[in-house]
Every structure is written in C-alpha cells, then in structure tokens.
Amino acid sequence: xxxxxxxxxxxxxxxxxxxxxxxxxxxxxxxxxxxxxxxxxxxxxxxxxxxxxxxxxxxxxxxxxxxxxxxxxxxxxxxxxxxxxxxxxxxxxxxxxxxxxxxxxxxxxxxxxxxxxxxxxxxxxxxxxxxxxxxxxxxxxxxxxxxxxxxxxxxxxxxxxxxxxxxxxxxxxxxxxxxxxxxxxxxxxxxxxxxxxxxxxxxxxxxxxxxxxxxxxxxxxxxxxxxxxxxxxxxxxxxxxxxxxxxxxxxxxxxxxxxxxxxxxxxxxxxxx
Length: 273
What we know:
The chain has helices at 3-26, 34-44, 46-60, 70-88, 98-108, 111-114, 127-162, 175-202, 204-208, 216-238, 242-270, and strands spanning 61-62, 65-66. The chain has two domains: 1-121; 124-273, no CATH class. It contains eleven helices and two strands.
C-alpha cells in the first residue's frame, strides 16, 4: 500500500474517532450508558493504533538502516503516547484524557509526510544505541501524557470553579486522584529520562562515536531532568501540588521538546543536515 495513502488512513482513523469522542463528550448521556460508550471507543482505538504501528515500521526500518527524522520521531512519540494511554486505561480511569490524546495523534501522525527522514541514523548496529533510543522515546511519551494530563486538570479545575463541568469530565476521577496519577507518570518518565541521560553521558563515545559535548541538546536535556527532579523533590518535601505542579510539568516538557525535537528540527529542516 502506498505510504501516503496509509498515512491518510491512519490520520483519518484517529480523526474519525476524535470527532466521535468530542461529540459524545459534549452530548449529555444517561449515566449508565457512559461506560459502554467509553469501552467502545477504547476498543475502536486499536484499529488506527495498529495501522500506525505498521506505518512506523515501514518508515523507520528500511533494509539494514534506521531512519528517524524529526517528523518520524514525533510520530513515534505520539504512537507510544497513545499506546501507553490505551494500556493505562485498563488500570486507571482515563476516559476524559482521550479527547486530547486522539486528536493530537490525528495531526502528528502526518508529520513524516511533511518532514521525512532523509539520512539514516549512525551506530544503529549497536544494541546499546537501540536501547538508548527506545528508552529516550518512552521518556518523551510519558512526559507527553503528563503534559496532556496537566492540561486536562487545568480545564477541570477552571470548570469546577465555574460550577459547569462538561459531561466527559464527570467520569474522571477527583482532582486529587488525578494529581496523584500525574506524579506517578512523571516519576516513571523521570526514571527513563535519567537512564537516557546517564547512558548518553557515560557511553557517549560508544553510542555516538565521539566524547560527550555540551550541545544545545545536552543542555536542555539536563535542564529538563533538573526541573522534573526538583518537582518530585518539592512534592516529597513540601507537598507541592495544584498549579505549582502544573507549571513545573509544562516547563520541564518544554525544555525536553527543545532538547530533542528542537535540535533535530534545526539540524534537519533549517540546516538541511
């Protein structure tokens, strides 16, 4: 199947589900029908998720080479984000979060068409490099979910103050429970980010063929690690929560975006390297 057509099928699959979710979210329903609708949406998500995985496999793996440009990297991250969300929905009440996750996937899954990878990655034959790459992408995905989670919490808090809570938010856990879940997600992402930075710093020459350098990517990566580490420490020592936690989460995520996606965008799109 033509890759352009497959990209469109994946995007329209996510978009169709997003339209259903938003219409369902904004339409009052009988309380006992809400879990049924959420279950059907959860099952239907398997289809675009599986097609997206097939598309990424075709885009990233080409012969013995590994292609991961900025567009493909973002597509992989949003796919992992949807997959983690979909898996987590079996254990947590995350129905409301899908109205943000699925529309994001509809748009971001098209990025490889706009910014295709033109150069293969180096050192992809090394198992350590592959492990480093997978861990870093997982870290991004956890922090992407955390950021979307924070946005949902901010919307929910504002609507609660107004006394006008949308239908889809009425199925979400209380804000305190969502906050606890947020810190669990951030802790998991922080562990993965620590492994990413640690392996990159300690084994830079083996992974990338040169000693570690304090580049734009390294500086912002370390800055994001400091932000999330300080946030977790503040939570443990001073009980940070609410808007303070939201601001720190978004600041850390922005720093992480500038570290990896920003550097790849500058090199591949602006400098054509």
